[in-house]
C-alpha cells in the first residue's frame, strides 16, 4: 500500500490583501509569446490560464506598459483598450474557474529591438545587451539603447501607473512591478548598466530611485494592497552585474517597507542565504518566494514542494513555482496527492506559439494510470 503524502502547509489557505487564497502555491509569471503581434492577448491564453486556476494565485506573464518597453515578438501589453479587452477574456475565464490573478508589468529597457517594437530601446545608460536578441527575422545583434532623459523617466513612471489602472479595468486583482531579471528597473539598479551622474545614478539611493518611484506611482494609482514587487538579488541574466547586491536590496526594501504593498516576490530564493533572511526580517508584509530550482533542467519529482516548505519554514508566506505549473495545469492536486508530474516536453515549444507545449499538457484525470495511482494515495 502506498502511503498518503504528509500534510503540507503549502495547501493551507492564506490571505493576500483583500484576497482569500485557497492554498499557498503561486503560479509564477512565465513568458509564453502567445499574444498577437500588437500585444493583444489571444483566446488561447484564456484557455491556458483557466486550466491553472486552482493555483492560490496566478501572476500572469509580463505585459508591457508602453510600446517602447516591448522585449520580444508576441509579448502581451496593457497600454490600450484592445489590450484591456483581450486580458478581460483571460481574467473572466480564470474567475469562472474560481481563480485569482495579478498581472506582471515589465518594461524591457535595453532588452528590446526596433524590429520588435518599431522603436529604439531606451535604458538608464547607452549600454547594449551583451548578447543577441530574438526578433521576427531571427536572432539579431542588440542595438545601443537611447539613454533616458528625466522627461523619459517621468513619462515611463506615468505609463506604469496607467498600465496598472488598465490591469484593474481588465479584471486583475492587482499587479506585480517587475524589477528583476535584467529588465529596465533592474538596469537602473545595477552598476554595469547605470552610468548616470544625475539623481537616478551613482549611489545606491540614486540607482533605486526609479524603481521606488514606479512602485509608489502604481500604488497611488490602484491602491498599495493591489501591488506587488518582484526582485532577483544577484541575478546576472540579461548581462546584469549589480556590483553591490548586499546594499541595493536592503535599501530598496527599507524605502518601500511602509507603503503597505500586497507582497514582495523574491526570485531564486535560498533560505540559507543571509540576504534572504535579512530581507524577510526587513519586509513587514507578505513574502512570496520562488525557490532556486535552476532553469532548463528537469522539474524535480516533487515539483519543488520540499524547497517550498523549507522557504515557508524560513518565513516565506507563499511559494511561486514556474515550470511545474507550465507542464502541470493541475499541479496543486498532483502535489496534494503525491502523483507523478509531467515534464516540460520541449523547451523551445515554450515560445513558438500554438497549442503544442501550451494548452495540451494532460491533467491527472485525463491520465488514466496516474489517476488510478492518485485514488490509491487518497484511499491509503
UniProtKB/TrEMBL annotation:
Its required cofactor(s), as named, are: FMN
A cellular-component GO term for this protein: cytosol
Q: Sorted alphabetically, which keywords does the UniProt record give?
A: Oxidoreductase
Stretches assigned to the NADH:flavin oxidoreductase/NADH oxidase N-terminal domain: 10-341
| Keyword hit for Oxidoreductase | yes
Recorded GO MF terms: FMN binding; oxidoreductase activity, acting on the CH-CH group of donors, NAD or NADP as acceptor
The Swiss-Prot or TrEMBL record describes its family as follows: Belongs to the NADH:flavin oxidoreductase/NADH oxidase family.
Q: Which protein is depicted? A: Alkene reductase
Q: What is the lineage of its organism?
A: Bacteria, Bacillati, Actinomycetota, Actinomycetes, Kitasatosporales
